[in-house]
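hey can u check if this looks right to u? its 818 residues, i copy pasted from the old doc so theres a chance i mangled smth
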Amino acid sequence: MPLAHGHLGGVAMQTLWQDLRYGVRMLKRNPGFTSVAALTLAVAIGANAVVFSVMNGLILRPLDVPGAQSLYTIERGNDKDSSESYPDYLDLRDRNRSFDALAAYNISQASLDTGKNPSRVWVFEVSGNYFDALGTEPYLGRLIHPSDEHGPNSAPDIVLTHAYWHSHFQDDRSVVGRVLELNKHPFTIIGVTPPGFRGTVLIFSPDFFVPIVNHEQADLEARGNRWVGEVVGHLKAGVSPAQAAADLNSIGSDLERSYPKEDGQMSFALARAGLPGGAFGTAVEAFLAGLMLLAGLILLAACANLGSLFAARAADRSREIALRIALGAGRTRILRQLFTEAVLISMIGGAAGLWGSVVLLHWLSGWQPFPQFPLNMPVNPDINVYGVTLLLSLASGFLFGAVPVKQVLRTDPYQIVKSGSTTAVGQRITVRDLLLAVQIAICAVLVTSSMVAVRGLVRALYSNFGFEPENAMLVEIDLSMAGYRAENVPAMQKRMIDAMGETSGVTSVGLVSIPPLHAACCNESNVFSDKTTDLRPLNAAANAVVFSVSPEYLHAAGTPLLVGRDLTWHDDKNEPRVAVVNQVFASRMFGSANAMGQYFKMDEGTRVQVVGIVEDGKYTPNITEGPRPAMFLPILQSPSTDTWLVVRSSGNPQQLAEAMRTKLQNLDPGLPSFIQSWNEGMDGALFASRMAAVSLGILGVMGAMLSITGIFGMAAYAVSKRLRELGIRVALGAQRKEVLQAVLGRAFKLLAFGSGAGLLLGILASRVLAFIVYQATPRDPLVLTAVVLAMTLLGLVATWIPARRALSVDPMILLREE
């Protein structure tokens, strides 16, 4: 028996080797077909590899920590926000029975002074149990532990990331014990994290870690201030996410009863740790899933294209196949050889596509779209990406290789040898027709989606933001980094405004806590009607975006004041509290009544009078968000160490950057700043729309190219097989219109049918785009017109050469050849 098995295995291997050699010979005999087919698959498989690698890096691949599969982030169930107040975190940490440990962290900026010019660095403020909860061991020295925490400001320690240690300290192992100045306070380096550890946010790479107890004491004690970025922890063995959520909800219910004013509704859900929570994480997941679907459609269109070409090629080889069958070759062997050719093409295309995707992903992994943020794009391909690419290559080969199977199985060698061909073109619907219709429909879906994305981006760029970013610069300064405390901040802010106003070319200067549409925006607060006495969150009349601004901010920002007065320097702590609000705020708080002079209450109970109303605008970095209430409070009544100067000029504001930097250095050499145009400051809000337009535009172009080749192939094949018939028609006096109708009528019918079906599917697919594209709708007349024109243009381009050939038929030459 072993000999028999060995003999069978040897025969199988020999047969496979013969099929491979035959397939290679056939592909070499037709290099044009082989090149087109392999290139088509390379583009389609490469697109899928890129999109899957991004999805794998951001969603599927776990964090680089031990036991990452059991690591979860806690989110608020009502708004999917992952932020918590520090006292609430302590209660959740100490009272839950579902997690091995719950750790907290917050991302912040700091000023680092190593004896030279101070630099801005990114810091993870972490709870004492952060590294223990993650199971992270130090590379050098030690890490932060719970024993380091002894109350506010009790742990002035720094743990460097391995990357920061390598780039800024040149792998100096004596760095442990060195003292650095962080925000003008001494901190001691106690250790270095292991290589590759970047914290618990996949796309963010901090410079170092500090204990969270060094944060402002007022924030550490404020239960209503949800400033802690995220709470993460490993589930205990045997505990499900649903059980953990129920455990947390029981704690939340108790906190609601104990602190009704601060906590309000507290329900919890669990999310996989890694991506930032809330609307951002949901939008990223939805967009990547939609992009993966569209990339899959590109591959399906490519397979349909190649399937049509393969069927046509099999028809052209019908006499060869018939002779082989007549001479005794089995149909199974012939089919196996056809599949071998298809798989060889798909493997060549897959290898080329993978190579191109690796090059693109390598560039993407080092891409920094926002220079001020240390972003990390973990998209380099791994074994999962290589495996998926191999599977897609094999599946593609079998998919388009299966198209001519029925054709081969029904081959009658006697009839083919007798007649010489089976290439008569009739009027019945063929598999090739269906494949082309599918291909056109997929193209229409992609073109519709790309048009919707481009239209949404144009709307976003030219919509009314409620401020004017042109000719305005943003200067970011956090005075707490330079050691300024509450009592010194207002005077320094006034000095900076005056200094900027004295700069040549500057027309107005204002100050805002965080500018609208910036990635870090915004602070929010519940507001209540003046008659409300129970100030629990569930009784709030609205949740408003809050800006602390200086006088002249509205003018510098280009925000029109519709009614009332602007804020002034007289609106200080000694004067009644006042605010300028937007139209949405006025209508939600006061209905149809005139809002001017009316009062409302903040969540701490302070009465505030409305003294002005401005037009509505865009505030949070989610540009797809609907109209929101907003209020602008005097900076002297609502102090903020977060300081953004808005500097408007009459000329090119970029030329003022160096002059502004010099002015700030003259005020305080230790003042770190970041200067950019307001348009650049909006990059985060517009990033999703821009990426959607670019990525969907590329996929749309790919789909269009595949449709052009598919329609061209069908039309050219139809003309080549009906030349004799066309010659007779022309000889009998047929008009040019009739000739074109005969050979191209079916192609245009399929184009119309496929485009209509694809447009309907595109309308459904565009719902996913609504998460990230401003006012995304394919029902826009411009989008519909553009799609119809694009598909018509595709049809004309694809049929132009076959149409010219059909119209240039000379019946005398054809009859002479016969």
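Residues 57 and 379 are 5 Å apart (CA to CA).
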